[in-house]
Amino acid sequence: MKKSTIIIVLLLGVFAQAQNKKWTLKECVQYALENNISVKQSELDIELAEIEKLTAKGNFIPSLNLGAGVSENTGLSFNPITNNAQTTTFLSASGNINIGYTLFDGLRNIRQLQRADMSKLASQYRLDKMKDDISLFVANGYLTVILNKANLEVLRSQNEVTQEQIQRTQELVDAGSLPRGDLLEIQATNASEQQQIINAENNVQISLISLAQLLLIKDYENFDIEDEGYNIVDDGVASRDVEEIIAAAKENRSEIKIAEQNVDLAEIDLKIAKGANLPTLGAFFGYNTRYANTPGFIQQIDPDNPTVTQQIGTVEDTGQAVVGTFPNTFPVEVAADPFVDQLYQNDGIGYGLQLNIPVLNGFNTKASVQRSRVGLERSKFQLEQAELDLESTVYQAYVDAKGALKSYEAAQLALESQELAYNYAKERYDVGLTNAFDFSQSKLRYDNAKIELNRAKYDYIFKLKVIELYFGIPATELKF
């Protein structure tokens, strides 16, 4: 009984700990990279590229085919061993081995293997880009949750001040120091703040659900993140010149590497297409044998009359007959030779070379070459466009990060000013030198300044990380 109780307590403790787990940004990114469907599909593309490479390697290996057959014949048929027509029932078997090897095919086998290596590398670049995109999506969703939580904390904290002001104002109204209208104004402010808190709580829950869906986590109710310790961490990338960041992006970003690999693939496709114009030389070797269980016949000399004399011709001038003596034989049926003996007796070997020279095939090869050439030109244009797009994107991200920093710095100054104004208004309100409406407006401006600072802070953090990602810092190594 005691053991059961201890086990139940331990299981409940583990379950409670699992429910209270708070995910860090690094854990969210790692989980997304391991479970995201798009990432898994990109990993399958790499597997397919590896299979394509295996096929290309197989082109360098000789082809080997084995064949065998067994049949039973009844009635008039040709004996495969004697090649005589027989009316009988017999069992026959045959076997063969054929080997073929391509000695030269216009270097297409070699280039197919090169293409397979390039295709695998391109698939890896696409997977890297997919992981970078997923990491940014997760980071953006994560920071959105933190922002909403920070805003909720601001509203709750300021509402506590409002609650204190309600109590303080109630005392002053009861003492006759303040009009009842001031109390009603503070209570109205409290009701408005309570509504804002409810909306902020909904925003937190919605952003958590969105992040959980991005991570493919279905337990929305217990999903939560670690919302502390995330500050602005600048490794100095933002202070670099934009041209330096663009140059680093062109060297490191997967978009450019993918476009470059597509150019390489188009070039190798053109070479493969041109290879179809060259002759193909192959070698072959074949071995075959056969067996039949039909009996054979031999000529046996008659022991009673071993020879026979027969006329074999005449002398042309005299007309004299020419005779000869021959063995007197008669056919005797004998059993079929053993299976293994027949395999040796009836085998045959064939080998040689085969040369195919393409002359005319309806312009198919020429059209294939022209299509490959057009594909190469298109891939070059796509590479040029990718470089232009990346340059534009990085420049826009750089400008956005600079603007976000200025917005954050301005929000800091605005908060400092609004805090001073709020403290001044609070002091005046506490001694009755200002009314509740003016105090509420000052408090509202102070609250909005805090919320705006949170928005500017996390907006700058995200845009700063985008710049660092373009500079070449891996998504999993970004610091927050």
UniProtKB/TrEMBL annotation:
Query: What are the record keywords, sorted?
Result: Cell outer membrane, Coiled coil, Membrane, Transmembrane, Transmembrane beta strand, Transport
Q: Where is the signal peptide?
A: none
What InterPro entries does the entry give? Answer: OMP_efflux, TolC-like
**Domain of life the protein comes from:** Bacteria
Q: Tell me the compartments it is located in.
A: Cell outer membrane
GO MF terms here are: efflux transmembrane transporter activity; porin activity
Q: What is its main location?
A: membrane
Could you list the residue ranges forming a coiled coil in this record? 152-203, 242-269
GO CC list = cell outer membrane; efflux pump complex
Q: Known PANTHER family for this protein?
A: OUTER MEMBRANE PROTEIN TOLC
Q: Which family does it belong to?
A: Belongs to the outer membrane factor (OMF) (TC 1.B.17) family.
Descriptive protein name: TolC family protein
Organism for this UniProt entry: Winogradskyella ouciana
